[in-house]
């Protein structure tokens, strides 16, 4: 909910006596603070409230950036086999190692609280905006659509990690909401789909330059495709209902076929994630940052802290430039020159020993945790940085974090269509667009559904490495019990730690103990 200061006015006896002569003295209200009653009076106030709904996206529990030296969006990767957070900031490595508990705190508690913070603000906006005088009806409809999109995003995120949660659609009210039990997860998802459908019907395809970053019709449609893809996946669709896959494919195809969006693949994979190319045609929805108003710490994390350190398994996952895995004897892989002639996305995503980074040769001590560093979502790359970017501190970075991009829509369509109907020509066409961008060979014709499934899962891993999607991917595929029950290695093959994953428990996070202390009616997830 919009954080408004409650005003308490102490009236002394003299004031009361004066009011007997002039009752208008009691009809004053402060001009430097707001109450619930005085806030919702102008279109400008309504717009400020909507901005508050967006602002939660930058909270530590969502995509990060507000906190000191924070980069939540980049740390998401460290829960997966792709990366490692050695110091266990925000309890990310506890999750990766299967050691999370209701009392772990960190991301487990902040995600739950921040999602509800966003939901509360959206609920308040949707309830109160109709009371604002002087609102243009067309503009109000668009603003409501944005709030519905954001509420759908926050509810999608919270159910994705915790399962069913209390489904609240009214403004925050401790008297009626503080002891609510959990709704079924399916009920929450049904509301998410409704919110996104309603948002898509209300939102425009595009905005002018001054409104970049606001949710569009395409953003609502793309998020719906992601929701339906997750619902169709093995974790949530154990009976492999083909109709669920078909629904996900149709939702992604609707984005691909929607005219007027201007969506497409940006020409250069590495440059897609640079500040100079923000809001390009591939970006469907992102979290906007601007220093000094509200920056992030992505550059500091990538270049100095290395707390999203890539692992050997990720580096080995990239195919050779000829499209063959490094394990194939015909691939031409040379262990003495392991990064030569590889999928260009490797060098577009990470930096490695023998690479050049920030104008200097990279040796094995440059990124001491695993030997690897991250370039994606950072201004830093091969060349020495400009003077103004030489030593960016916490909160001084401005690169937007991309939540939804067109390549993901293509990949979602290919995965869902393959499961629903097999690897038809449309599956190949979607995937080969992504390969064309990086100059990699097309997928081999005649693949079986099972072989295509393996290729799609591999392609998702390397295409979206560093973007925080792979942890949710291996959970929804129910492969986390294999991929997170193993040792992890640095660039030289040295064991860093042994990870564990309990399939009877760890596919879901625990309800935070802080939330259960406040509301004993919240049933804990099994195994915690």
From TrEMBL:
Keyword Lipid biosynthesis on entry: no
Pfam families to which the protein is assigned, alphabetical: SusD-like_3, SusD_RagB
Keywords from the named record: Cell outer membrane, Membrane, Signal
Assigned GO CC terms: cell outer membrane
Record InterPro entries: SusD-like_N, SusD_RagB_dom, TPR-like_helical_dom_sf
Family matches, as CDD domains: SusD
Span of domain RagB/SusD: 303-528
UniProt keyword Translocase, yes or no: no
SusD-like N-terminal domain mapped to chain residues: 69-229
Superkingdom of origin organism: Bacteria
Compartments where located: Cell outer membrane
Sequence similarity: Belongs to the SusD family.
UniProt-recorded name of the protein: Starch-binding associating with outer membrane
Organism: Chitinophaga eiseniae
